[in-house]
Amino acid sequence: MRRILTSLVLFLFTSSVLFAQSTTGRIEGRIQSQKGESLPGISVGLEGTTLGSTTDEEGKFLIKSIPAGNYTMVISGIGYESVKQTISIAAQQVLPVFMRLNTSDFTLAQVEITGSKAGNYLEREGTTATKMEAHLSTVPQSVQVLSRRAMDQLQVVRVEDAMRNVSGVSVETGFGGRTDIFQIRGFRTDQTSIFKNGFRNPARTYRESANVQQIEVMKGPASVLYGVSDPGGLINITTKKPTAYTFQSIQLTGNNFGLVRPSVDLGGTIGEEKNFKYRLNGLYERSESYRDFVKTKRYFVAPSVTYDFSPNTSLSVEAELLNHNQPSDRGIFAVNGKIADVPRSRSLGEPDNYSFYQNRLVQYNLTHRLNDAWSLRHAMNFNYGTETRKLVEQTTLVKNSDRLINRRYQDQYTFDRYFATQNEVYGKFNTGTDIAHRTVAGVEYSSFTLDLNVKRAAYDILDIYNPEYSTKPKPVNGTATSQDYRDRTQNVGFYLQDFITIRQRLNVLLGGRFDIFDYRSEDYFGQDTTTQRNYAFNPRIGLLYEVYGPLSAYANYSTGFQTEVGRTLEGDTFEPLKTQQLEGGIKLGLFQDRLNLTTSYFRIKKSNISAVDPRDVNFRVQVGEILSEGAEVDVTGEILPGLNLIATYSFIDALIKSDGVTTSGTRFQNVSPHNFTFWTTYELQDGLLKGLGIGGGFTSVQSRPGDINDTFRLPGYTKVEATIFYRAKRFNVSVNGKNLTDEYYYDGAQSATGIMPGAPLTVIGTVGFNF
User: Fold this and answer.
1) If you average pLDDT over residues 166-175, what whole number do you get?
2) How far is CA 468 from CA 419, 471, 648, 712, in A?
3) Entry pTM
4) CATH of domain 247-770
């Protein structure tokens, strides 16, 4: 660990010295209309020079290599009033510019984008950590963003394909390998801490990637703004939004395991005033798998609209409809501390296993700008999902056997509903001449209801080395109810945060949230009802100081909570699980801020874990504690025009101190101490082959425990990938090879009876057309 930290410090020092030799600065920013819509094609230049740029489809621009001095910046575009502004640029300075343009007296002509613009590879701004748009280099916390352009080059079909490229994040199997489960900084992150557009997004299937614009990963507990939070961090998916320009795009993706995935993405405006904007994403997916009996059929439609009532008031509404048909797959077994030596295609279920999931989502977002300083936001989210499962699955090893397993038949129905509303006020003001404030205050209400009914019956015995399937009828009429309950949780949270900038060099982030949590469980099978109320207050403080030019140092302290249901021997309800994080690090912009590097050290402690009460084994006491600490490095950006890079490293020392079950000092399940990822692409910028690109990379994971007691190990592996692609104005094509060396590895394990082998050599290709 000491050698790693020493090497890291030397690297940062050398990089900062090299960068300090630059005598130029740069300007980057975003141009919008008074309605808040992004304006593409706006010219931004420095008067009297040849330096300038044009905004992209997101209204963003960049002017680099600007000699230190004073300039007049000119912003102009057809249909908008020109703006001139005096600016001053210092050496190594990055000057942010955000401006809204007024329309001119004549009508703006329709802006039509027909090329295959993919946006920035490096996303410099995010909203997850602060609930407001902020440059990530100014936020005193580790936040990583995966852009749409990077996801396209990686040929992301599932969200997990993207998440492998964030430090400290690993993929785990969950719900029988049919939904998104991750580990961040050693802690399991499931439905509780995966969000969509700032709202919690419970789902029992894979979240669709077709309408994803970017993914933000906020490291550490997020309770200060979001309430209940897993200790490791929060994942927020931002969806594609309606556009002020017209475009249509279709594409077809396929792979060597029978994947057929046509999709459409289109957007534009309706009406002469262009107050009404729309976006539509849709796809159909059909696929076989490298796993026996696992077939997928999937339908997805996601419309969204935005209506501007006035330059100050806007309403956005979006919806998702998803149908997903894919049987559960719990993988293979470990026997006597070793993973069974069977083909990675081996399934322990039945060919006619059936699972069907549907999800419906509606969100709206209403914003109103009171004046240049204050604005209001009211938003709502409603999500419901149903799942039906009729299947045969493995349970346990037959006693005194090393190859025979017991299987059961299960008939399960799940119905969940999630409603949430957020009401917030935002303010920008100064106290004195050197202190600027950006403040958000809000109240959130949420309600989650889960109905679950499970019927089970013993089925048969299967030889994992020589399976014989479908040997007997399913005991459909012989099942007995094993679970039948309704859980309902309601939460009210009040939060306040102030993001303070002092003399443009010191950023202070102060915040706190108070939550009231109510839980009610009705067990129809056991004829029992449980109720519980908890309160929690969680603060956060963060400091970031601009040491020199692009080099900043930061530190933060934050707390979080998770609900823990139960009662002590004395009859008292359990306190929430508590989390504390200490984090510090360095943020550095290299190559004139085209490449961003973030390094961090973290220490996360989770306490109040329940253990068996030695006075009465029928009760539990909250005495357990677990600890995860380590270091991370994330490097993302464009080294040279067309040369892009994502590289990450994480060291995670995650240990169980005491939880009443596991031996003290045991490492966390599925957590590798050392992880590396590397991905780079180069695209030709001119000439006859302009748009042609190649790239490649690898993922390297160390050996890690396969269960909570570390009774068997998932071996380490290195997986190699490569890509070749071509992008033209109206056409794009790409081919990716994944696991090129056909490495036999394991994605993760739920237990010794549920270990998921990773995919073998896979070739995936996409062809797309833009109109």
Assistant:
1) 82
2) 46, 7, 44, 27
3) 0.86
4) 2.40.170.20
